[in-house]
Write a structure and sequence with these properties.
transmembrane; mainly alpha; Peptide transporter; signal; transmembrane helix; 69% helix
Length: 154
C-alpha cells in the first residue's frame, strides 16, 4: 500500500510539472490572455494515467490482501466494503477541495488557480496541493503501518 501511496505523489507531481510546461508553452505562443488553448496532444497525460493506474493497483490490491490476511474471518466482507466506502468518500472529498481552493484563490476578484481560461490560472499549484496532500496521506499511513502489530497467520 505504501508503494501505491508513493506513486500517487509521483503522479500528482508529474501532472504539476506537465502543467508548468503547458503554461510556459502558452506564454511562448502568446496565448496567456486569449481564449485560445494550447494545441493539445493526446499523449501528454499518458504518464500520469500510467502512474495513477499503478498507484491504484498497488493500493487496492494491498488493501484487499491486508483485509484477507489480517481481519477476523467474520469481518473480511465488511472490511472490503469499508475499502470501497473510503474510495467513494475520496471521490466526494475532491469537489470539496476544489470548492475550497476556488473560494480562497478568487478572493479580491483574482482569476484564481482554476479559472475558465486555464492559461490565466495556475492549475499547477492545485496539482502541487494534491501532491502535498498525497504525501501527507502517505506519512500518516507510514506512522500507522510502523505501529501495527501483525496478526499471526496459520
Amino acid at each position: 500500500m505504501g508503494i501505491g501511496l508513493f506513486i500517487s505523489v509521483l503522479c500528482m507531481s508529474a501532472a504539476a510539472l506537465l502543467e508548468i510546461k503547458r503554461l510556459q508553452y502558452a506564454n511562448e505562443l502568446g496565448l496567456i490572455d486569449t481564449e485560445a488553448g494550447v494545441p493539445p496532444s493526446i499523449f501528454l497525460p499518458n504518464p500520469q494515467y500510467i502512474l495513477l493506474g499503478s498507484a491504484e493497483v498497488f493500493t487496492f490490491i494491498g488493501q484487499h490482501e491486508f483485509f484477507y490476511e489480517q481481519a477476523p474471518d467474520a469481518m473480511r466482507s465488511l472490511c472490503g466494503a469499508f475499502s470501497l466506502l473510503t474510495n467513494s468518500l475520496g471521490n466526494y472529498l475532491c469537489p470539496l477541495i476544489l470548492t475550497i481552493v476556488t473560494y480562497f484563490t478568487t478572493e479580491g476578484g483574482k482569476a484564481g488557480w482554476i479559472p475558465d481560461n486555464l492559461n490565466e490560472g495556475h492549475l499547477d499549484y492545485f496539482f502541487w496541493l494534491l501532491a502535498g496532500l498525497s504525501y501527507l496521506n502517505m506519512l500518516v499511513y507510514l506512522v500507522f503501518a510502523r505501529k501495527y502489530k501483525e496478526k499471526k497467520t496459520s
